[in-house]
Design goal:
2 copies of one chain form a homodimer. Helix content of chain A is about 45%, strand content about 15%. Chain A is built from 14 helices and 12 strands. In chain A, the strands form 2 sheets. A 6-stranded parallel sheet of chain A has the order 2-1-3-4-5-11, with helices on both faces. In chain A, strands 7-6-8-9-10-12 form a 6-stranded mixed sheet, sandwiched between helices. In chain A, helix 1 packs across helix 3, helix 6 packs parallel to helix 14 and helix 11 packs across helix 12. Chain A is elongated, with a radius of gyration of 26 Å. The structure holds a DNA duplex.
Chain lengths: ~350, ~350
DNA sequence: GAAATGTGGGAGAGCGCTCTCCGAAACCTT
DNA sequence: AAGGTTTCGGAGAGCGCTCTCCCACATTTC
């Protein structure tokens, strides 16, 4: 606490110059004669000076920090976040962009009502210059709260109506269409889907488009079971599907983990994949390649999207003007062994 | 940015009192007459005042923030952190303790050399009041760097010699002994182990104690294969073990994920578990209960340890004196289906 | 009734830094 | 040589808050 280290003033005295000059050297602004620069740097090293961020922020109104917020409204927060490789990919995408610009990335988690309030308060008080938000649930109030607090914010996934903030997103509808058309083209006529939880941000976009493709070709009924994005829930969903609709010859799951669970269950029951039932996943996460059979899946370029998200925020932060921007990415179908 | 909101001064004017009085109300110190208190609160609500954390920190030398640092020296950082449920458990344990005290938890990740330097710099400049560090690798220089920077620090896992900081740890040796004695008692005489990577903090503590137990009973050779804490590496390790030491009748893995991989591989090869080979894991993570067969494992009370870690730091932070404290937890053997 | 005690509020000095002015010196220009 | 321009360093005014004094007044005590 009372760790009061040396200040600019101390460095100035040590180097025999003024506070202003030391500040200029530290921040590398304007011209300072080379020899004075050297003597200042020496003094800094000699007495072990570190700038005080609080003092700096007070005048610059900047912290040099950006928050990456993982937010959920439901239960089992940590279990969800620290088992789905999706978040790791987001982090992987965001970090380099921020580091490169000397911005300190800070992970914040909002796992409860209370946490969310504390978090918004923290950011309002100047905890970070902006926020990158990855909402796990569709009805998450956090983005709206941040926007209302006037904090520059960029979302992973489209904002709901009225939330005026930047975002990156995947063209989910196009991805689902890709999957549907592939299954149709390979002769499947009895598809079913393991959908996202109703609360998921992307829940119905993927589902509806998938059905539309088949509906347009005369297949009007596509059974749906909701999963919870985990391998286990995929198994359970598949079990239900197999029981209620044994004629099913194709399954489209809303993420790879659930697709993997479906494959596991099918094979355990002696159902051939892809022989009898074809399975398509979503994301193209590491799970897709590790599963056996390797999954055919809709690739979501998560790292690139995350990087873009960080890029948009950084732009908004120093560009100033022009307001929230956004970027939508195109999915690609990756055909492997499960279809 | 130029988001200059209302200040204490504005509230004071609005409420017709002095800056000092508003400050007293906001921070709830000393006596302020009830009616004045009310009028100040009204004024705050009316003009939407939020205290400026930078200004506050500048004088108090406190941020009200604690960093939870995940640090690794190797590759594939995010993949490791966001797939092993272990970290979720740590987060789950730490958060409530901090929230309860109104401390804002901030997750920091040190995934590279550069990140580590930036991070230490950030914390030295007053990014947080203290750090909770979860090192993934034994040779991680971060704890030493933080201690050197004078930051109150508490580790998950014992510090290396000379690092003078608080920590919580599991009695790993006792855990390994528990596993060994259980296997011995159930008649296993040809044990092998799937050990942690040499770089892991707990690598040899578990391994050595396990061997000691068997050595004391005349079994002097215990084959070792190193894994990488993942299911996949467990499979590979088991394959090697089965090839080189087909007589093996028991396997002790350094975490549940590897034990799970071992079980999978054994069963796929038609080797009965626990009939022919018994398997013991470590941690008692969710994976242990989800695996089939359900794993016998050494329970590490991660959440409680994490909570204690946070508690120790908080104490050091406001207690001041007395220096770094520590706490060691006892493991428990949980017998399930795999032995 | 005067002194001692307690209570509630204001004044104002910083915390460590940035950044706008200013002025002194050095360098061109015609 | 006189003026203009550029270069470089210092002075000093805050940024928004906390916190120590200090003072005015109310209450108690002998």
């Amino acid at each position: 606490m009372g760790n009061r280290g040396p200040t600019l003033e101390d460095v100035a005295r040590e180097a025999g110059v003024s506070r202003a000059t030391v500040s200029r050297v530290v921040n590398g602004v304007r011209n300072v004669a080379p020899d004075i620069q050297r003597s200042v740097r020496d003094a800094i090293a000699r007495i072990g000076y570190t700038p005080n961020q609080a003092a700096r922020s007070l005048v610059t109104r900047r912290t040099g920090t950006v928050a990456l917020v993982l937010s959920a409204t439901g239960r089992a927060f940590a279990a969800r976040v620290f088992s789905d490789p999706f978040f790791g990919r987001v982090v992987d995408g965001v970090l380099p962009v921020l580091r490169e610009r000397g911005i300190q990335p800070v992970l914040l988690v909002a796992e409860s009502e209370q946490a969310r309030t504390q978090l918004v308060e923290y950011l309002r008080q100047g905890g970070a210059d902006g926020a990158l938000v990855v909402p796990l649930d569709q009805d998450d109030p956090l983005p709206a709260m941040l926007v209302a607090a006037g904090l520059p914010t960029v979302l992973f996934g489209s904002p709901r109506d009225g939330e005026r903030c930047g975002f990156v997103d995947l063209d989910n509808a196009a991805g689902a269409r890709l999957a549907a058309e592939h299954l149709w083209a390979t002769g499947r006529r009895r598809p079913a889907t393991i959908a996202a939880p109703v609360t998921a941000p992307t829940a119905d976009e993927r589902l509806d488009s998938f059905r539309d493709v088949f509906a347009a070709r005369g297949v009007t009924s596509v059974p749906v079971v909701r999963g919870r994005f985990t391998v286990d829930s995929g198994r359970r969903a598949m079990a239900k599907l197999l029981k209620d609709h044994p004629e099913t010859d194709a399954v489209f799951a809303a993420n790879d983990l659930m697709a993997q669970g479906a494959c596991q269950y099918l094979r355990e029951q002696g159902v051939a994949v892809p022989g009898t039932v074809a399975v398509v996943g979503f994301d193209d996460s590491v799970a897709a390649r590790k599963a056996r059979p390797q999954l055919t899946t809709v690739r979501q370029p998560v790292e690139r999207m995350a990087a873009a998200m960080a890029g948009l925020l950084v732009e908004e932060l120093d560009g100033g003007g022009s307001g929230p921007a956004s970027k939508v990415f195109d999915p690609v179908l990756v055909v492997r062994e499960s279809t």
